[in-house]
Write a structure and sequence with these properties.
By secondary structure, the chain is of the alpha/beta class. It is 45% helix and 13% strand. It has one domain (4-225): Alpha-Beta Barrel (TIM Barrel), CATH 3.20.20. The chain contains 12 helices and 8 strands. Helix 7 (168-177) links the parallel strand 6 and strand 7 (182-185).
């Protein structure tokens, strides 16, 4: 089981939108030096929605190669077509990803039984550890704990990224899935409490900007040290809010660029952070001691 701070990595781009692999390599080294426990390649924060399949897998391969086995790499391979999700997951396995992250099908709004059959098909098709990803705020599809419990019976389905922010689900999912099933939060604002309640880690946006602090906070929470965890989290509160002042990953890419780690590239229909937000994001970065 992967524990701790799993950073949903931004994808560096040049001004024209092309992927900047030199900056990507620099980012990987930064995260390993700062104690990040694993990386997600091509998740929501990595702008997977605006990269084509070839680019998607090219970024996954680059991150796997740059990491070179030092920390786990989890590839985002979800799709709202089951056959496409299987193909992406097979490709990620062939490229050397350690696991995959599978967002619930978006836009077409499957039933709970449809969700079960979707993930069952992927689990039966590809021999790689698979993490479910429930983020109804983006997908208009909420996978209920009961379905997660059914899916946990598949050996290849090893965990879930639960991004509803509903802390009551931690105990419910744990009871349904058992102690060997990984529970990750996808909501930075509640990540501290999530892990204090028994979660195993976070798949984080804030960790792009303050990786060391997020790592330390999450492990304090996993160990049950409420005082240490909440003290660190107090310094991260601004990031948890301001990195979502506009659609993710707009603010976090601006912040990472402000740190000098990437250039100011993002793909349409996303646009660069507007100037009226600069100071509030910068203040949050200062609160987290990264500026």
């Amino acid at each position: 089981m992967i524990l701790g701070s799993i950073v949903a990595l931004v994808t560096p781009m040049f001004d024209n939108g092309d992927v900047d692999k030199d900056s990507l390599k620099q980012l990987v080294e930064f995260h390993i030096e700062q104690g990040t426990d694993a990386l997600v390649a091509m998740g929501t924060t990595g702008e997977s929605a605006t990269l084509n399949e070839h680019e998607h897998m090219d970024v996954v391969k680059a991150i796997v190669d740059f990491v070179a086995g030092r920390i786990p790499v989890i590839a985002g391979t979800g799709a709202n077509s089951t056959s496409e999700a299987i193909a992406l997951t097979q490709a990620a396995k062939q490229l050397g990803a350690d696991a995959c992250l599978l967002v619930t099908p978006y836009y077409n709004k499957p039933t709970q039984e449809g969700l079960y059959l979707h993930y069952k098909a992927i689990a039966e098709a590809v021999d790689i550890p698979q993490i479910l990803y429930n983020v109804p705020g983006r997908t208009a599809c909420d996978m209920l704990p009961e379905v997660i419990g059914r899916l946990a019976k598949f050996e290849r389905i090893v965990g879930v990224k639960e991004a509803t922010g509903d802390l009551s689900r931690v105990a419910v999912i744990r009871d349904l899935c058992g102690d060997d099933f990984a529970l990750y939060t996808g909501d930075d604002a509640t990540s501290c409490e999530f892990c204090l309640l028994g979660g195993n880690g976070t798949i984080t946006v804030s960790g792009n900007v303050a990786p060391r602090l997020v790592h330390e906070m999450i492990f304090a929470a996993i160990k049950g040290d409420r005082k240490a965890a909440t003290t660190i989290d107090a310094d991260l509160r601004g990031l948890h809010t301001q990195l979502f002042i506009q659609s993710n990953p707009i603010p976090v890419k601006w912040a990472v660029a402000e740190m000098g780690l990437i250039s100011k590239g993002i793909r349409l229909p996303l646009t660069w952070l507007t100037e009226d937000c600069f100071e509030s994001v910068r203040a949050a970065m200062q609160q987290a001691h990264v500026l």
